[in-house]
Amino acid sequence: MGKEQREKSNEEKLLPVDKILPLIITSLIILFFLAISYPIIHCIFPLADDKGALEGAFAPINALFSGLALAAIIYTILLQRKELALQRKEIADNRKELKRTADAQEKSEKAFYEQLEAMLITAKLNTYNSLLEHYEKVVKAHGLNDETGRKAAKRKQFCIMQIEIQEKVIDNMFVKLAEAKNKE
User: Fold this and answer.
1) To the nearest whole percent, how much of the chain has pLDDT over 70?
2) What is the pLDDT of residues 139-150, one digit of tens each?
3) What is the rounded (10 degree) CA torsion for 162, 168, 171, 177?
4) Choosing a second label site near 75 at 20 to 30 A (CA), which of 26, 29, 89, 120?
5) How far apart are CA 48 and CA 35, in angstroms?
6) Among 60, 62, 61, 57, which residue's Cα sits nearest to residue 42?
7) Contacts of 170 (CB under 8 A, 6+ apart)
8) What angle do CA 164, 116, 102 make, to 5 degrees?
């Protein structure tokens, strides 16, 4: 989730005036009707002994409250609908971010293994170069007429072949890297 989205989310949490204002207005209207209904009914029915007539006078107020209750329920449904839409959008954004993170992690893992492979090849090359130098010294010291010199010469040739093989592996690695860059 980006910085801008977090700021918008924080603003919505801090300033819920657009959500509370209709409820405050509705509450004030209800209190107003309650306050004026009692004196009006007593003016119309000053000494009403008939409870039915008095109850009938409150019927419009009951209808008003029932209507206001229905309006409040509809309003809360609309608020929940809006909140659910925002929640769905946030979940979708989180999925996109997780997908992007997973892709980056896979690329990082691939780069790590490529680096590890390069380090192993470097270690092999260093080993073969050290052996090659050693066998060259043995051949110089003993010559090719001595058994030790002939064995050292064969091992020297083996080291040269292994170095050539590792060079081909390195060339293949560069080709793979170039192909991977071209795909991106």
Assistant:
1) 79
2) 888 887 888 888
3) -90
4) 89
5) 20
6) 57
7) 121
8) 135
- Which of 43-57, 81-95, 103-117 shows the highest mean pLDDT? 81-95
Specify whether the CB–CB gap between 150 and 101 falls below 8 A: no
Secondary structure (H, E, C), the chain: CCHHHHHHHHHHHHCCHHHHHHHHHHHHHHHHHHHHHHHHHHHHCCCCCCHHHHHHHCHHHHHHHHHHHHHHHHHHHHHHHHHHHHHHHHHHHHHHHHHHHHHHHHHHHHHHHHHHHHHHHHHHHHHHHHHHHHHHHHHHHHCCCCHHHHHHHHHHHHHHHHHHHHHHHHHHHHHHHHHHHHHC
**115's tokens:** 């680096």
Q: Is 30 exposed, middle or buried (0-12, 13-18, 19+ CB in 10 A)?
A: middle
Q: Which two tokens stand for residue 90?
A: 């946030």
Phi and psi at residue 176, to the nearest 5° = -60, -40
Q: Residue 141 is encoded by which pair of tokens?
A: 């010291």
**Residue tagged 């790590």 (tokens):** 112
Q: How far are the Cα atoms of 27, 112, 131, 148, 155 from residue 74, in angstroms, in the given order?
A: 16, 57, 85, 98, 89
